[in-house]
Amino acid sequence: MKTNLNESEEPVTKEDSKNSKSHLYDLIDIEEKHLDWFIISAMVLLLFFVVFGIIL
Amino acid sequence: MRVQDEEQVPIPSEQSGRNQREKTREFLLDYSLYIILGVLIAIMIIIEPSFISLRNFTNILSQASTRAIMAMGVAGLIVLQGTDLSAGRILGLSAVVAASLLQDPNFPSRMYADLPQLPLILPFIVAIVIGAIFGLFNGFGVAVLKVHAFIITLGTQLITYGLSLIYIDRPPLGAQPIGSLDKRYTDIVRGSFDLGVIDLPYLVIIAGVIGVIMRVIWNKTKLGKNMFAVGGNMDAAEVSGVKVVKTIMLIFLISGLLYGVSGFLEAARIGYVTSNTGLNYDLDAISASVIGGVSFSGGVGTIPGVLIGVLILQVINYGLTYIGVSPYLQYIIRGLIIIIAVALDVRKYIKRK
Q1: Burial class (CB in 10 A: 0-12, 13-18, 19+), B238
Q2: What is the DSSP string of B244-280?
Q3: Dihedral (C-alpha) B264, B291, B255, B282: value to the nearest 10 degrees?
Q4: Model ipTM value
């Protein structure tokens, strides 16, 4: 069955979508390890503010 | 030499222990937001055991209802890899206009002193038309002009805020809150069914019905399937024959309609409106959506997830006030919850890639 693709266009493959920079998150260049530490730090900060708020 | 060999080849039990630790670490990080929110709720209950009461439960459900209606609109846009920073202000504008048209006819300081008592449906239609206009405006910017949703909705946020201020701050009354709303209006929104053990607010039923409709739209209609296709991979959706512009416009239109509905309901729920009604509601809706599993990377999300996200966030907001945490600190806490939710979403995306 024919698709509505022009001859010059190639189908978008899974690989293409992996390499595409269309996602907002593709702009974020961070290693997973650093991201994990960022998340843990944010959580510690969150708990700190909750405890601080309760004490205050 | 033998020692070296032993160092190079890990002992199976040691390796499985390491795998186990790795799995535990992954699990803890993947579900860390739910764990920490659970800890927060536990802290609230320990400090104020009276937090667990039917009255609080009803209040939380009632407050969450209007937020949930709005969040379902925002979630659709996040599925499309977009967002909406103007949602709260569109809600605010709809609320201000609806409330001004539905003030008690016997109230001497009405905004429109000569306005007769209107049927409820008329201000409701006005509110959803306002939502629809700005929803379409945002949709046009994103789908046709290809402006990123962050930019166009940021602009709309300011435009709608400006319009609210112009509308509300007029002589002779000036920028006073619009209160003393028509009893017919407040009764419909604040009323509840007496189920014996619990009074179920009408608002919860309205939000539930809209939730069912939205779930059908998302999961059972062509529009919903196209929305997930466009959000997952716009190029692939386009070459598959999906009308991308039409899909984006329709999803923005639905979102606008939902903001209009929630604005109409929110005004009556609070009992008065000011130009600040709806402030930061959009950020709550975004964080509720992300907590509920809607991904900023697009193409992922469910309506029940969004509703659970709204409920969790509302429990936290209500609980923090209940245990006496300063509202200023609550802004910081909510900001951190958004940051953690999005960082976890980024983490999932990186892993998937």
Answers
A1: middle
A2: HHHHHHHHHHHHHHHHHHHHHHHHHHHS-B-TTTTTT
A3: 60
A4: 0.74
Report d(CA B83, CA B94) in Å as an integer.
20
Q: Do residue A30 and residue B346 have CB atoms under 8 angstroms apart? A: yes
Radius of gyration for chain B, computed over Cα atoms and rounded to the nearest angstrom? 23
Mean pLDDT of chain B: 89
pLDDT in tens, B194-242: 887 788 899 999 999 999 999 999 999 999 999 999 999 899 999 999 9
Tokens coding B323: 């245990």
Q: Does residue A9 belong to the interface with chain B, where contact is any CB pair within 8 Å? A: yes
Q: Would you say B249 and B63 are in contact if contact means Cβ atoms under 8 Å apart?
A: no
Q: Under a CB-based contact definition with an 8 Å cutoff, are residues B135 and B257 in contact?
A: yes
Judged by CB atoms closer than 8 Å, whether chains meet at B324 and A22 is answered as no
Quote the pTM value: 0.84
Nearest-CA distance from B183 to chain A in Å?
38
Side chain identity at residue B113, one-letter code: A
Query: Is A43's CB within 8 Å of B36's CB?
Result: yes
CA angle B333, B44, B272 (to 5 degrees): 65
Answer positive or negative: Cα dihedral of B117, B119, B125, B131.
positive
- Identify which of B157, B170, B188, B201 has the alpha carbon closest to the alpha carbon of residue B100: B170
Residues of A with Cβ-Cβ distance to B325 under 8 angstroms:
50, 53-54, 56
Q: B213: distance to nearest CA of chain A, Å?
A: 29
